Amino acid sequence: MLVEILDTKKKKVGEVELNPSVFEAEIKTHLVHDVVLSQMAKRRAGTHKTKIRDEVSGGGAKPWKQKGTGRARAGSIRSPLFRGGGIVFGPRPRDYGYTIPKKARDGALKSALSARLKDGAIVVVDKVELDEPKTKKASAVIGALGLGGKTLILLDGKDGNVERGFRNLPDVKLLQVSAINVYDLVNVDHVVITKGALSKIEERLAK
What percentage of the chain has pLDDT greater than the value 70? Predict the structure, then answer.
C-alpha cells in the first residue's frame, strides 16, 4: 500500500510503500486487549495497605480478666473483633504487573497499526521540527495537518524544540519510536509518524 508523505503544512512531498506484514496484518483484537490490560496493570501503584493486629497501636493490656465477667475472653482491644482493631485479609502492597510474551506484544502492535491505518488515522510526515520551542508554533503544525482530538506523534530522534513546543498541548503526546506501545496507539484519534520512525517500526516488526 502506498501512502503520501506530507510536510508540516500538509503538502505532499513524496510517497512510501508500507510493509504489508506490519500495516496490513490480521487484526487480532484479543491480543490488543491482552496487551492493553497488561500495560494498565503495570501502571497500578499497588500501594494500598491496611494494618493487621500487630501493626495497630495500643492494646498492650488485657482489657478485662479472663474469667468471672460473663463476657467473652479477650486478650487485646486491637483484635479484629473490636472497633479500631486490625483488619483481616485486607489489601497489602503488591505489584500488579505481569509479562506478555514478546511474540504476542509484536502481534498486538501489528494489529493496532493495521487497525489505525484501516481507520485512516495514520498520517506519515517527512519530519516534525520547530525553529524555536513555542507552543503556538506547535499548535500551528497540528492545525495545518487538520488533526482534531487526541494525537500521538512518533519521532525517530530527540529534538529539544519539538519536545518543549508540544508538551503544553493537552491533546498531543510525543513518543520516541522506541517507546511505541499498543495502549497509546489505540487511545488517540490520530497517529503522526515521521518517515524515519516509520522505517524503524518496519525494521522492528517485519522480522
Answer: 100
Separation between Cα atoms, residue 112 and residue 23, nearest integer Å: 9
Residue with cell 488515522: 121
User: 6: part of which helix (H) or strand (E)?
Assistant: strand 2-6
Strands 12-17 and 2-6: antiparallel
Unique residue bearing C-alpha cell 510517497 = 15
Predicted local distance difference test score (pLDDT) of residue 177: 94
Residue 186 phi/psi, 5-degree rounding, is: -90, -10
Closest listed residue to residue 123, CA positions, set 11, 5, 27 = 5
Q: Which long-range contacts (CB under 8 A, 24 or more apart) does 144-148 make?
A: 144/8, 144/9, 144/10, 145/6, 145/8, 145/10, 145/192, 146/10, 147/123, 147/189, 147/190, 147/192, 148/189, 148/190
Burial of residue 140 (number of CB atoms within 10 Å: 0-12, 13-18, 19+): middle
Q: Which grid coordinates are listed for 57?
A: 497501636
* 66-99 pLDDT per residue, tens: 999 999 999 999 999 999 999 999 999 999 999 9
Tell me the fold of 2-28+100-205. Answer: Ribosomal Protein L4; Chain: A; (3.40.1370)
48 pLDDT higher than 90: yes
CB-based contact 151:185 (threshold 8 Å)? no
